[in-house]
Amino acid sequence: MKRKKKPTKKFIVFAAILLIIVLIYMGNKENDEREKTDISNEQAYEPEEPKEPEELEKLEEAENPEESIVELEIEEPYEENPGSLAGVETPDNIIIEKPEAIDVLVNKTRTLPASYAPEDLVTLEDLPTVLVNPEVNQLRSPAYQALKELFNAAQEEAGYYLYARSGYRSYSTQEALYSSYVENHGQAAADKYSAKPGQSEHQTGLAMDITCKALNYQLDTTFAETEEGKWVAENAHRFGFIIRYPKGKEHITGYNYEPWHLRYLGTDLATEVYESGLTLEGFFEQENS
Ligand SMILES: [Zn+2]
């Protein structure tokens, strides 16, 4: 009897070990595939910099630090405004009708159509970038040309080197980021801290997050205190960009201070907004009142 039992026991142990190995392998494979397809396949500009395990979250958190999102308090809706401000009103938000307009206003009450992707996206070939993901190293053509001029001027006028970290982000990428947030932190946290698909300005191809070496090429509010960040704040409008989420305007923009997030508007409008001292929301509201 003992002789017969022994091989059975061994077999069960062997089978169990085999099963565990298969499960571990499948788990790893799933993780690998996730890294391949998601925006998370970012890599540091400097190869020696260690990669963080949860890079999907890292990108989302860098973009939307937990403390950075506050409730949006726009007093008046924009449905009566003409041009790029026109949109179809739904109970919670407005679907933007002219997403391709250079002065398009995107925020938590004005949503881009799911089908919208800019037709003139170009790869940032002549600019220093940080991430490997090819999607985020794109901008609409006029914004790219302007960013090149901005970076060149920073170097020539002041000797500062700027880096492009995160530009275009498709609706489906934002959808994946948002779903991932819901999965990991729950619906309530996701709604509070993650931009819903269609509500990220990065989908316009007109927004770029920039950084510098002093910040180890990350996104951080201390960018504002760097020489590079100060220069950008004072000069970006000359090249058609504004700091989209200014300090102390969280109650209007819905986002905390993001000194790294540049939005292209063209030099005329960017200069007007810069000189007004208003947010883009506040500027349009004043224009249309
Ligand atoms: Zn951004």
Offer a quick outline of the entry:
This protein is of the alpha+beta class. The protein has nine helices and nine strands.
Detailed description of the structure:
The chain has 289 residues and is of the alpha+beta class. The chain has one domain: Muramoyl-pentapeptide Carboxypeptidase, domain 2 (2-Layer Sandwich). The protein has nine helices and nine strands. It has helices at residues 2-37, 55-63, 141-158, 171-185, 187-193, 227-235, 250-253, 267-276, 280-287, and strands at residues 87-89, 94-96, 110-111, 121-123, 138-140, 163-166, 207-211, 241-245, 258-264. Helix 4 (171-185) crosses helix 5. The longest helix has 36 residues, at 2-37. 37% of the residues are buried. The structure holds zinc ion (ZN). Zinc ion (ZN) is lined by residues 63, 202, 207, 209, 261. Zinc ion binds next to strand 7.
* Number of DSSP-assigned strands: 9
Largest sheet: 4 strands, antiparallel
Low-confidence stretches: 29-86
Any idea of the CATH class?
Alpha Beta
Mean pLDDT: 79
Beta-strand content = 5-15%
List keywords for this structure.
single chain, 289 residues, alpha+beta, Muramoyl-pentapeptide Carboxypeptidase, domain 2, three-stranded mixed β-sheet, 9 helices, 40% helix, 12% strand, binds zinc ion
Topology:
Layout: H1 2-37, H2 55-63, E1 87-89, E2 94-96, E3 110-111, E4 121-123, E5 138-140, H3 141-158, E6 163-166, H4 171-185, H5 187-193, E7 207-211, H6 227-235, E8 241-245, H7 250-253, E9 258-264, H8 267-276, H9 280-287
Parallel strand pairs: 2-3
Antiparallel strand pairs: 1-2, 4-5, 6-7, 7-9, 8-9
Helix pairs in contact: 4-5
The structure holds zinc ion.
